[in-house]
């Protein structure tokens, strides 16, 4: 008994191996070996590599046989780089019914016409195979095809032009799956729908995404009742919205993103089989009819981002019981979020951000699988307490910023072990509930800035050990925080506590936060610069403004190699410790302190230095003279500077703005300063004349040199300053006529001209009538003569006008704008008459 069963087994094994051995026809085997030889260039796959040692080619990787003939060949993902030409042994494998060459690199050649020799093919997959150019007519002879996939990974040069689509698929009556994504079909007329519906009646899968199709989608497509997958995304179809799609009872997947317009038709939501619908990015969609009852929906994914499908969120959305992903962001939605949404128990990801939704947030307590909830940028109100957050044990991302939410933030949220990001900024939250929790160790981003938090600093934060970014700025705690209570937050990269009515205390135990990049502690009652910054090796940006820091700016601060931006403004600093270092920071703000003495040398790359409102009591040269800097911005206003502006300032190549206003500077204005975009020298005692050498084009945008002792003429070359917006030369001793050229500044951006309180003579230039955007013109207290030009009456934006105390004569123009000016604008001119003056003409 035992031996006979052993015999049976033995025979069976022998028989099986003999059969396998004999299966492969020798001709097929040698063709495959030739193929292997041809493809023996670079390829990263393992299938072809393994061919050979065993006799039976039917057992080789990727090879399928029927009766010893190769009928299936799957060389997908082999990364073959050879050139596939018409003499390839591949085209001798005449029994092939399935050929998959997906993901190869057939050297940017066209598809070889020899594919026509493979007349038995039923499934042909050439997606991302590396072919380019026109798809050859020979493909159209493969009349048995059920699957044709020539998808490119991106626009790669594949196209269907001549032969056209009609010729290509016209003889493939069995076609079930057609994918031509990223093949250029832009020359095909809009009758591609008729072509497909008449030639491929059994089509189930159609992917013509990214093919450059345009025109409306013709209703004849509706004849293809078997379609279950349609991807026509990223084309530019015109109206109307293809509502006939609701005929496809078997449709499970529909992607029309970035492709359709017209009035949205919700009937497609009634399709019982539909599981995936993407209409995102269709900005031209008009709100349409969303069905009020939806029965037996299978919809799992609904993506309508940036597709204004409706004015409100329809209540019936709650009937999409299978929904797991919902994206209706940027849809101009108004009104409330319907309560019915709470019935969607399978939700995983919800995005309703950037709408104008109002009212309360419905409870999400039933959506136990919820991972992401994004309601940012709406006008939602009320508290967060309607949801039992403890239940949402999969929540990863909660984004509620920029709403009007209020009340206490449920502390339970921060005990959800999976939570990674909580963005609650820009609301009206006042505090936290008192639940006791085990703080999540996954949470790495917590933003509750711009709220109304008050009371004790929330202690659960001390336990959020994974925290990297913490922003609690702009709140109203009224409490004290010892920075060493944050010692467990070793991964912090940004810590923002500015303006939150917190007194931040630092002691000997203050941790160094080794990964910290950005520290913002403005208005935190600091008495000194945190010593942990010394020798810090990651910090990039520090804001310690509006504190009570006294004494010296320590020289070690310039030695922090990673630091690029430092704000110590609004403190009580008195000097900057001398250093030999050259400062490479991009941005330094030391304004509003009590600094005197010298500043360190800044390197050519420094972008901005703001040191206004200090008490240097010295000359510009001694404050910044030894800098070899190239500031974009230099501001030393109101700092008790005296002496002249040194020519060496020209070496700082200040490009964007220079503010030396309200000092005691005397002497001439160096010519180079008239190349700066924003120049403010007001309130000094600068004398001399303004050089008439402004280049064309000139870069001045705003110029204020009022309140000095300038004399001479207003430069004619200001007419070159096409970007000029504001010109204030008032309260000087300028003489002669206002140049006609000032009215010719080329792009006419100018909004305000003030040359009042000078000694100007001559007429008001008629060219001022050209300054069509002028809002304010002050010529008061000069010695101007002549009449007010009629041309000024056409300045429709002019809202301030003053020519008082001059020597003007004649009738005041009657323009509509002039009717708004009062007597004060004109008084002190003996010769003026007409409204609003009492004197008649
Ligand atoms: C493939 O090429 C390698 C070297 O590039 C060579 O060693 C090997 O013999 C070749 N195989 C065939 C089947 O030609
Ligand atoms: C086709 O390619 C093979 C190998 O890649 C090459 O040896 C042959 O010369 C090519 N034939 C033609 C007609 O280009
Ligand atoms: C082509 O082959 C790839 C990889 O095997 C597959 O993902 C894709 O669905 C195939 N195309 C069709 C239309 O079946
Ligand atoms: C496609 O091309 C064929 C042959 O050139 C032509 O007869 C036919 O009208 C074209 N079809 C369409 C829809 O352009
Ligand atoms: C829809 O699918 C069902 C089940 O797969 C099938 O029996 C039916 O023929 C399909 N309908 C059409 C129009 O293809
Ligand atoms: C909904 O599904 C139920 C059960 O599968 C079925 O009895 C009912 O007819 C369906 N209703 C509709 C409108 O399809
Ligand atoms: C800090 O920097 C100083 C001077 O640059 C150096 O002497 C000291 O060793 C550094 N300390 C640490 C802990 O790196
Ligand atoms: C600078 O001068 C002002 C008066 O001009 C004086 O009040 C102030 O004490 C001086 N500051 C220093 C630091 O010398
Ligand atoms: C210079 O600083 C003062 C004080 O901070 C500020 O008011 C002024 O606008 C600044 N000037 C420029 C050009 O930014
Ligand atoms: C500007 O810099 C150049 C070269 O560094 C120097 O020769 C020249 O004297 C400087 N000019 C002024 C006005 O400091
Ligand atoms: C301005 O400078 C002139 C000399 O250029 C001097 O006479 C005058 O007193 C100064 N005015 C003020 C307010 O310092
Ligand atoms: C500017 O105004 C003068 C006087 O009104 C007029 O002759 C001239 O054509 C205007 N120039 C432009 C560029 O508008």
From TrEMBL:
Keyword Phosphoprotein in record: no
Name this polypeptide is given: Leucine-rich repeat-containing N-terminal plant-type domain-containing protein
Record-level GO cellular component terms: membrane
Cell location: Membrane
N-terminal signal peptide: 1-22
PANTHER family: LEUCINE-RICH REPEAT-CONTAINING, PLANT-TYPE, LEUCINE-RICH REPEAT DOMAIN SUPERFAMILY (PTHR48054:SF93), RECEPTOR KINASE-LIKE PROTEIN XA21 (PTHR48054)
SUPFAM superfamilies: L domain-like (SSF52058), RNI-like (SSF52047)
Bilayer topology: Single-pass membrane protein
């Amino acid at each position: 008994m035992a031996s006979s069963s052993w015999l049976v087994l033995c025979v069976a094994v022998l028989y099986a191996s003999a059969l396998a051995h004999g299966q492969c026809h020798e001709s097929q085997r040698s063709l495959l070996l030739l193929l292997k030889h041809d493809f023996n260039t670079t390829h990263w796959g393992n299938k072809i590599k393994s061919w050979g040692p065993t006799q039976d080619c039917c057992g080789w990787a990727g090879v399928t046989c029927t009766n010893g003939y190769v009928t299936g060949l799957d060389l997908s993902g082999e990364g073959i780089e050879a050139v596939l030409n018409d003499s390839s042994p591949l085209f001798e494998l005449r029994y092939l019914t399935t050929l998959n060459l997906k993901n190869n690199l057939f050297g940017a050649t066209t598809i070889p016409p020899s594919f026509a020799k493979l007349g038995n093919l039923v499934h042909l997959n050439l997606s991302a195979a590396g072919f380019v150019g026109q798809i050859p007519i020979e493909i159209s002879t493969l009349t048995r095809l059920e699957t044709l996939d020539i998808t490119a990974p991106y626009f790669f040069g594949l196209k269907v032009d001549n032969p056209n689509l009609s010729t290509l698929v016209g003889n493939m009556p069995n076609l079930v799956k057609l994918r031509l994504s990223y093949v250029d079909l832009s020359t095909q007329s809009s009758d591609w729908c008729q072509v497909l519906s008449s030639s491929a009646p059994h089509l189930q899968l159609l992917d013509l995404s990214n093919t450059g199709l345009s025109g409306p989608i013709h209703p004849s497509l509706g004849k293809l009742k078997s379609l279950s997958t349609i991807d026509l995304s990223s084309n530019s179809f015109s109206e109307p919205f293809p509502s006939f799609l609701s005929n496809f009872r078997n449709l499970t997947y529909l992607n029309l993103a970035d492709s359709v317009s017209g009035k949205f038709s919700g009937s497609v939501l009634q399709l019982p089989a539909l599981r995936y619908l993407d209409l995102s990015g269709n900005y031209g969609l008009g709100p349409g009819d969303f069905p009020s009852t939806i029965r037996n929906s299978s919809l799992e994914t609904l993506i309508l981002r940036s597709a204004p499908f409706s004015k409100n969120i329809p209540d019936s959305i709650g009937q999409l019981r299978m929904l797991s992903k919902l994206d209706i962001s940027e849809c101009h939605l108004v009104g409330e979020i319907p309560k019915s949404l709470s019935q969607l128990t399978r939700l995983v990801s919800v995005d309703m951000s950037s709408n104008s939704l109002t009212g309360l947030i419905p409870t999400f307590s039933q959506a136990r699988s919820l991972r992401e909830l994004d309601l940012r940028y709406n006008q939602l109100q009320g508290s967060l307490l309607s949801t039992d957050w403890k239940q949402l044990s999969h929540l990863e991302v909660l984004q509620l910023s920029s709403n009007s939410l209020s009340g206490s933030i449920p502390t339970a949220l921060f005990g959800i072990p999976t939570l990674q990001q909580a963005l609650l900024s820009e609301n009206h939250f006042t505090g936290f509930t008192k639940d006791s929790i085990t703080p999540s160790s996954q949470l790495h981003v917590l933003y509750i800035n711009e709220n109304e938090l008050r009371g004790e600093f929330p202690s659960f934060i001390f336990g959020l050990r994974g925290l990297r970014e913490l922003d609690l700025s702009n709140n109203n705690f009224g409490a004290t925080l010892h920075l060493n209570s944050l010692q467990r937050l070793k991964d912090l990269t940004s810590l923002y506590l500015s303006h939150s009515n917190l007194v931040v205390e630092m002691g000997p135990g203050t941790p160094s936060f080794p990964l910290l990049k950005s520290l913002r502690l403005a208005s935190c009652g600091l008495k000194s610069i945190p010593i942990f910054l010394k020798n810090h090796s990651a910090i990039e940006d520090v804001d310690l403004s509006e504190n009570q820091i006294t004494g010296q700016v320590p020289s070690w601060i310039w030695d922090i190699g990673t630091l690029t931006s430092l704000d110590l403004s609004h403190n009580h600093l008195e000097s900057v410790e001398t250093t030999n270092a050259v400062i490479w920071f991009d941005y330094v703000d030391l304004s509003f302190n009590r600094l005197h003495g010298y500043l360190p040398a800044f390197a050519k790359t420094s972008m901005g230095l703001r040191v206004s409102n200090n008490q240097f009591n010295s000359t510009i040269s001694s404050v910044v003279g030894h800098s070899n800097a190239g500031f974009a911005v230099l501001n030393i206003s109101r700092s008790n500077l005296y002496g002249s502006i040194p020519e060496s300032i020209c070496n700082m190549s200040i490009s964007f703005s220079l503010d030396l206003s309200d000092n005691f500077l005397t002497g001439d204005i160096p010519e180079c300063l008239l190349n700066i975009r924003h120049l403010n020298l007001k309130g000094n005692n600068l004398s001399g004349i303004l050089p008439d050498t402004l280049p064309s084009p000139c870069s001045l945008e705003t110029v204020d040199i009022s309140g000095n002792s300038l004399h001479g003429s207003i430069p004619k070359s200001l007419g070159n300053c096409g970007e000029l917006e504001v010109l204030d030369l008032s309260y000087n001793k300028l003489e002669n006529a206002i140049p006609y050229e000032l009215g010719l500044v080329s792009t006419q951006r100018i909004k305000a001209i003030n040359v009042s309180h000078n000694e100007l003579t001559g007429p008001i230039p008629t060219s001022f009538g050209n300054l069509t955007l002028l809002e304010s013109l002050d010529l008061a207290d000069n010695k101007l003569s002549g009449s007010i030009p009629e041309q000024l009456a056409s300045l429709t934006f002019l809202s301030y006008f003053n020519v008082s105390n001059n020597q003007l004569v004649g009738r005041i123009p009657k323009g509509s704008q002039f009717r708004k000016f009062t007597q004060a604008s004109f008084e002190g001119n003996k010769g003026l008459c007409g409204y609003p003056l009492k004197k008649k003409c």
